[in-house]
């Protein structure tokens, strides 16, 4: 039925129309099969797959053991209690983990950076995508996230630490003024709304399955639980829960990944088929036919067929061993040319451009991540921030990439050849030679089922706890980051119109209040882009999150440290032009939602509606009964989606606008134009409650960890700053 990796585009494609009452929308074809079955289809106790295509109805997967739900629940409660306990520990005050007295040692910085990077997107989203499509479709997520930490450690981390600010937008305030500060703040908050939504989806996908509740309800439970301990215990709770969740979660995920790699079949083997299935080779060739003791076909001369007498001794419908015939030559764990050849996954399309764009978006867009840079600000020295980023990036590779290998293993048990698989009856595909039942419907819970049904129970539960912990450790940091930026960098600007709206005394309260609407918006988005969504759920939302800041924030961020006297006008034009370009291209470029740019080859054809009542060519029947696509064509459209082009184009435009404005102003010897709020300023944080409270965490860490001398600290501290000359300070 299908060549290597039947899974690939099958999951990314959707049929032209959805069947309601009938199995096939075309009434002539549907009536033919009703006459053949002697009753309306699907017949009682049967299914459309069997009545139309002769494929056994999918078998039901048993419910997960109660122990999995109990284990995950206990882990959530422990994290929740740890977070709440920090409130009482600091007597009702939250701690500013963004600066933390600038005293965090290397091991804390490394763990918290990696905890923010290795989230449910890098684990569950990664495994889901590599299961539905192929290895690199999932692996690009941890590759991009790990690269971002390496790039940050090399180019930005030590500069960020030297700034001694509270939030990332504070740096923009110092260089570019209030207008750019507010724009950057809004862009980063929008980005983190998406990031939080993706992690809520990961949490909800697991708990809804284990607790047997709707995914929407599970997402809202996640939002409430994480918000409560984060807003109550503040950034102090984020620090403690990150460490606990990171250590416990990573170990479980790593152990589970390498256990599967060592003990399970690497990828789906060649298909054994079903009664009437013709093998792609002949008897005596030493291939699939001989592997499964094939026998001579009845109708097709010289061909080798499924051995019905051997595998179905009880008769048709009661075969001891069969599958869907999805892999005539078997699947592979990895196709080595997937990142260089758009036909690497033939007969299925390869999202080559999108995969490279994903690495670029995550690798550079994540440099504007509020949580990443907050940990750099909190580091004890610039070298600590730099080394912590590099080690955190390597940890992301080590933990995340093995999960992409699990996609192929998941396909062994829940892929198109598995007895639990389901196909859309009313679909055809000329590239697969299928007039009906062409599209495979991937199971959105397949990887979770792999952990609960195919792994040792202890390891499966441990890995589920790890993914939940990864989701929570990133989600709580995202909530606090959004609350701090909104209160400190956005709402505080309204003091000119509403005096006393935000003061050092009520800033903590304002930060907690602003987390509420942000969390609610993320929960609503997560409920829409849940795990069954065609866009890819967790992994997709992560990429969207950093697509936003790649187009707007990253270029002026580099300008802060690598441009001589960075211009507020250059930053403003880069942010506005990049954002507008990204927004316009979102609606101008053709996008069908499948993330595949058009190529004029059959592999890039979408599925069409069922087009014939005849048999595929690999079924042993009289040749006159084989489907001829020339006589009965399958009505298919080419994929056409330029997603990725918009992201890269917007980033390029932002670079051109920033460098162009800087160059023009340099040659002109003055400002290109003036605008309000363009003067760089430094926020007064000497009496900032968050800064004062950070001493609590510093004292705790100094008691727990012996301070270490950082070599080269003075040299890094003395690096020149790109601060604009004569920047006025705000009273």
TrEMBL record:
Transmembrane annotation, as ranges: 68-90, 97-118, 138-161, 182-211, 217-236, 243-262, 353-372, 384-406, 507-528, 540-563
One MF annotation (Gene Ontology) recorded for this entry: symporter activity
Keyword RNA-binding: no
Location within or outside the cell: Cell membrane
UniProt membrane topology term: Multi-pass membrane protein
Composition bias, Basic and acidic residues: 706-720
Residue ranges, annotated region (Disordered): 692-731
Any matching Pfam family: SSF
Keywords on record: Cell membrane, Ion transport, Membrane, Signal, Sodium, Sodium transport, Symport, Transmembrane, Transmembrane helix, Transport
Transmembrane in keyword set: yes
GO biological process: sodium ion transport
Family membership noted in the UniProt record: Belongs to the sodium:solute symporter (SSF) (TC 2.A.21) family.
Protein name from the UniProt record: Solute carrier family 5 member 8
């Amino acid at each position: 039925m299908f060549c290597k990796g039947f899974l690939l585009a099958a999951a990314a494609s959707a049929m032209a129309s959805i069947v309601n009452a009938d199995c096939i929308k075309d009434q002539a074809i549907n009536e033919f099969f009703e006459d053949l079955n002697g009753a309306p289809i699907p017949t009682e106790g049967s299914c459309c797959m069997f009545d139309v295509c002769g494929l056994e109805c999918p078998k039901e997967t048993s419910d997960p053991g109660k122990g999995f739900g109990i284990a995950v629940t206990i882990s959530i409660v422990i994290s929740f209690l740890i977070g709440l306990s920090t409130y009482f520990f600091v007597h009702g005050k939250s701690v500013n983990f963004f600066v933390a007295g600038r005293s965090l040692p290397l091991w804390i910085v490394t763990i918290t950076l990696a905890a923010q990077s290795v989230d449910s997107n890098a684990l569950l989203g990664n495994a889901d995508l590599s299961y539905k499509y192929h290895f690199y479709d999932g692996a690009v997520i941890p590759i991009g996230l790990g690269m971002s930490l390496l790039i940050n450690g090399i180019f930005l981390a030590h500069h960020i630490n030297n700034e001694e600010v509270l939030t990332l937008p504070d740096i923009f305030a110092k260089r570019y003024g209030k207008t750019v500060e507010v724009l950057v703040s809004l862009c980063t908050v929008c980005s983190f709304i998406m990031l939080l939504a993706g992690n809520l989806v990961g949490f909800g996908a697991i708990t809804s399955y284990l607790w047997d509740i709707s995914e929407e309800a599970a997402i809202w439970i996640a939002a409430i639980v994480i918000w409560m301990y984060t807003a109550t215990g503040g950034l102090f709770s984020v620090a403690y829960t990150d460490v606990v969740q990171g250590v416990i979660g990573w170990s479980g995920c790593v152990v589970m990944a390498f256990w599967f790699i060592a003990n399970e079949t690497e990828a789906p083997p060649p298909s054994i088929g079903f009664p009437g299935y013709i093998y792609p080779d002949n008897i005596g060739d030493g291939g699939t036919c001989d592997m499964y003791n094939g026998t001579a076909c009845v109708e097709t001369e010289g061909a080798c067929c499924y051995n019905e007498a051997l595998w179905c001794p009880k008769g048709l419908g009661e075969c001891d061993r069969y599958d869907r015939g999805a892999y005539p030559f078997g699947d592979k764990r990895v196709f080595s040319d997937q990142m260089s050849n758009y036909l690497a996954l033939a007969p299925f399309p390869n999202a080559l451009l999108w995969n490279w764009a994903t690495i670029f978006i995550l690798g550079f867009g994540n440099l504007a991540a509020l949580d990443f840079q907050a940990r750099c600000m909190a580091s004890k020295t610039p070298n600590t921030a730099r080394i912590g980023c590099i080690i955190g990036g390597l940890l992301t590779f080590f933990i995340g990439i093995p999960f992409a290998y699990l996609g192929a293993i998941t396909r062994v048990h829940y892929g198109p050849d598995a007895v639990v698989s389901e196909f859309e009856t009313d679909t055809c595909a000329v590239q697969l030679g299928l007039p009906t039942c062409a599209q495979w419907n991937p199971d959105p819970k397949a990887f979770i089922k792999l952990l609960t049904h195919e792994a040792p129970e202890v390891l499966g539960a441990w890995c589920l706890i790890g993914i939940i912990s990864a989701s929570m450790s990133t989600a709580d940091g995202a909530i606090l980051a959004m609350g701090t930026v909104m209160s400190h960098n956005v709402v505080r600007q309204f003091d000119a119109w509403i005096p006393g709206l935000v003061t050092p005394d009520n800033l903590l309260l304002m930060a907690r209040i602003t987390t509420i609407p942000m969390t609610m918006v993320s929960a609503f988005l997560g409920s829409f882009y849940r795990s069954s969504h065609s866009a890819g759920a967790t992994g997709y939302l992560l990429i969207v999150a950093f697509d936003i800041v790649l187009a707007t924030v990253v270029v002026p961020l580099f300008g802060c440290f690598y441009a001589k006297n960075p211009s507020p006008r250059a930053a403003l034009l880069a942010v506005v032009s990049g954002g507008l370009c990204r927004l316009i291209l979102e609606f101008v470029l053709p996008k069908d939602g499948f993330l595949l740019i058009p190529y004029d080859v059959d592999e890039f054809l979408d599925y069409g509606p069922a087009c014939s009542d005849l048999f595929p060519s690999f079924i042993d029947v009289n040749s006159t009964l084989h489907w001829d696509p020339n006589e009965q064509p399958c009505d298919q459209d080419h994929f056409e989606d330029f997603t990725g082009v918009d992201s890269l184009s917007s980033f390029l435009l932002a670079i051109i606008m920033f460098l162009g404005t800087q160059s023009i102003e340099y040659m002109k010897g003055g400002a290109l134009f003036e605008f309000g709020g363009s003067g760089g300023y430094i926020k007064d944080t000497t009496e900032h409650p968050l800064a004062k409270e950070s001493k609590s965490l510093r004292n705790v860490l100094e008691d727990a960890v012996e301070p270490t001398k950082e070599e080269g600290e003075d040299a890094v501290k003395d690096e020149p700053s790109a601060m604009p000359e004569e920047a006025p300070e705000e009273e």
